[in-house]
Amino acid sequence: MDIMANTLLAVGASPAMVHAEEEVEEFVTLASALLINIGTLSTPWIRSMHKAAAKAQELGKPWMLDPVGVGATTLRTNTATDLAVSYKPTVIRGNPSEIVALAKNICKELDLQPSEGAQKGVDSSQSSDHALVPAKALAVECHCVVVVTGKDDFVTDGSNVIKVSNGHPILTKITAAGCTLTAVLAAFVSLGDVTHVMKSCACALSIFGIAAELAVQDPTAKGPGSVRMLMLDTYGRFNTQTLWNMAKIS
């Protein structure tokens, strides 16, 4: 939560980390977008997630689902599946294994081998391009945009695909990097209308990746710990020209 909140502040958003059943619906009413991250699960938190997603759907507000660790346990798989099927998120963002596992559970016609979608804890065991077909199927089934992140990132609505190639391998060594990225996606999607969700996601992916590239180049960067903090500083120096010069979007 700490790095997610600080990153949102750094990019100009105003975060609130809320999980109490008694107030989630009120906060959704106040918010421009909702992010549900299933990284830490408990029965009360799951009830809160359902309440929050239902309220966002009722109000027509964008909401993101981060299916952390889907495929690793039955609880995670069922929770993410129920949320995605019941409340139709605006965006689902996951690593390749998470997206394959979720698609495998939701898209029954998808032809996948039993081993596909296997999860290594909350880390991916597959490449992002391998997950593109399942991502498309999931986008169609859930009527949403699906973002698969990895060495290359892919954004799809089931028909169209945007590829983003910004980033650095060190991100795989930084805890909550993917969770933080989903938060940035939520901030960007909250600014546009439904016709620009894919473009908003692509810009957010590129900016997050560029921040990692610039942080690694900093002379004070010593490893994952320092890069994690340097990325926060990098957003403050970011401008439109930086994006135009460094974005790798196709």
Automatic annotation (TrEMBL):
Pathway(s) it belongs to: Cofactor biosynthesis; thiamine diphosphate biosynthesis; 4-methyl-5-(2-phosphoethyl)-thiazole from 5-(2-hydroxyethyl)-4-methylthiazole: step 1/1
Keywords for the protein's UniProt record, in alphabetical order: ATP-binding, Kinase, Magnesium, Metal-binding, Nucleotide-binding, Thiamine biosynthesis, Transferase
InterPro entries assigned: Hyethyz_kinase (IPR000417), Ribokinase-like (IPR029056)
GO molecular function: ATP binding; hydroxyethylthiazole kinase activity; magnesium ion binding
Biological process terms in GO annotation: thiamine biosynthetic process; thiamine diphosphate biosynthetic process
Alphabetized HAMAP family for the sequence: Thz_kinase
Protein name: hydroxyethylthiazole kinase
